[in-house]
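Entry 14. Two folds queued back to back today. First construct below, sequence then structure tokens.
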Amino acid sequence: MCRSTSSTGSLVGFLIVAVAGNVFAQGTGEWLTFQHDFQRTGRADGAGAIVDPAVAWSLPLGGMLTVEQVAVGDLDGDLVQEIVSVKGSRIQAVRSDGTAVWTTPPQGYLSVYGIWIVDGNVGPEVVVNSDREARLLSATTGQIVGRMPSGVGATATFVPTSQGGLILIAGNGSLKAYDPTQNLANPPNIWTSSLSNRQVPAIGDIDGDGSLDLVVPLSSGYALLDPTTGSPKGPTLDLGSCFPQRLQLVDVDGQPGLEVVALDATSTASPSAGVRVMGWQSGRLNLFWSTLYSSSVAFDYDVAGILDLVKDLDGDGSQELVYSVWSRTGASWTTRVVDAATGASIASLPGKVVQAVADIDGDGKAELLTKVTSRADGGPTYATLEAYDFDSRPSGFVAKSWSVTQAHLLRQALRSTAQAAVDLLQPVIGDFEPRC
């Protein structure tokens, strides 16, 4: 098993999937790391089976990194992943063993947009943002090979094409597409749209025609654009105030085209919290169904969910959607399972917040992992984790025979170009110690 922990300002060569008090320690070879003190030292009083734990390597980063400040990809074509991150005002690339590949001079770098093959030539470029402009860096040397206008806080999305790809930059109230296949050093702006906010657009085939579409979250709804021209595909879907959104593009009905599954996460920014499912119908983006909770004051309701919130839980060929909702009047969270295509209620778990929907026991079916909480913010960080089978809609949830106390399931943020999702966290669950 490969373990990783992180502290403020460092990458460390271990990987931790769950953090739990006095759980999984005896006879498993696990080293427990709590990390809930203010200094994030990772020190704990629990006993571990490892005799002499040692850090594989660490790298000073000059501050705590966000998902926008680090990217992983093969820079040199050797099929081994490198890590590119912001270090102070520099960009640095290191190998998986911690050795340096290259470091740029300090030039006000703020974020790493991605590692993309933007011009169709062999090998990728590293696309980054600075306090003045977006830049294309050589993946092998870190030298600047191209520049594009940008700004502080701007986001970027990559749209692959047969020749390479387009770089879409959202910021300052506009969405601009740049084509590095025409000129790598100075990619031309091929279209500009005022349909934008600072949320990253999502990419996927919404209308089922086999080509990619651009789903742009707006403060009052959604726009669907052709990413190659910026032209609207049908009229904007106006939903009233619904910002910010957490969304994923996923097939909920087995028909051509993906649907937009969106959580209106909090009643502080919108009059209603809830869930919406939208898709292509009659030549435009339409609302298929919604379940909204109207608020009279802020935080009357809140909605929580994770990446892969749509799954066929019972293996019957129909998709279920899992999310959790907070009610201030009831002072409780409830995790709900509904039919993803229609919104019809199937089952619920009071007092729980969904943490993961994944096959955690290797039986080929997804289980539901929840956290026990009665707090509006979903806290505390460390709480009891419980797991449930969902073998059929009539039988509903069946609790597994175990639970984990004082535990926290790690989750990671992923880029929209990797998962066709915006602002949804992915639970860190996997077989990190395969035996065959």
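Second construct, same run, same settings:
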Amino acid sequence: MRGAADALRRDRERVLYGAWSTERFAREDNLRAFPHYAKTMLGREKRGRQTPMEQLAVFETMRSAGVPMTIKMVKRARKPSLPN
């Protein structure tokens, strides 16, 4: 669910940014070389990993929509650290 919402938000932002950039370039008298603009245009959004609670919320949503599944907590054993 979070991925679908993020995709819609990114699409909307991409369209708005395209319109803004078109108007910005239309108002420029002398355009600079592409690398000057590429730094801001091609920036990447940092995205962290989903928390366990976010993952659980996604699965709960899927289960409430009728997807048959069993959700249970699995405890992981910590790997022993290597001696120095």
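Quick look at the second one. The chain has a mean pLDDT of 81. The radius of gyration is 22 Å.
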